[in-house]
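Write out the 3D structure for:
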Amino acid sequence: MRLSYSLLAAAATFALYGAGATGTDHVLSAAITTAQPAGGTLFKNPVALQLYSFRESFKANGVPKTLARVKAIGFTHVEMAGTYGMSREAFKAELDKAGLTPVSMHADIKVLSGDATQVLSDARFFGVKYVGNAWFPHEGAFDQAEATAAVDAFNKAGKAAAAAGLTFFYHPHGYEFAPGPANGTLFDMILAKTDPKTVFFELDIFWAHHGGANPVALLEAHPQRFVLTHLKDMKRGTRKDHTGHAPDDSSVALGAGEVDVKGVVEAAARGTGVQWHIIEEESPTPDTNVPAGLAYLKSLTGGPRG
């Protein structure tokens, strides 16, 4: 998720938690159950859709039609981070009507590491298992001081989530892979200094690649710290840096770009803690790219079937 999405997340979270509202405008994910054909071991996990992919549809067509479209593509589960302006009761009713079940959600880290009572209540209301954050707020370049602050916030959020019977995760956004101490990256520092029993990660393979990391190597090096992925491919030749920003059209259908999507799925199946793969499209053409990406995954051995 790029910064504009993160700003939307912050605004939405303020609307829900700062202003006392019961709904927020943010991101969701949906998932289809996968089958394991004889001899097929590539897909251990179900595959999900990040509903932010259809953000323009939510604006133009509304919640019921957009959720129905997601279900028609073949998805059945959602990762929540908001309710698109509805109360949580109304939004859950629409999810139920569409046949979409929440499994996780995103929220503002300031809320998760502070008074998390309401957000954890919402998580339990929707029945999710995972609750996390996709952007640690910072000014300018993300540096070691901010990484230290992130460690503290993540440990607090992880402890609070665990006490509520939930699992906290952080979604690195690329800037965390800038150089850090001991010839490592800032992400290495964050991972080493957070509690492995309560702090987990959602690996966005686009943003890891954008920040100069190898998402396959990350899964192989830390197999039990990643519980979710965002499957997202990158247009060939896209400029890489540690800003956490890229043009929307640099997001392309899975299998059409330069990220090793197949390698990630294979690595995740080899004894990792990954529970869900989540397709995310930041392009302006999700109606084309999401089905194409799903078709690519289906073309792989043991791929998902609706």
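Residues 3-299 form a domain with the TIM Barrel fold (CATH 3.20.20.150).
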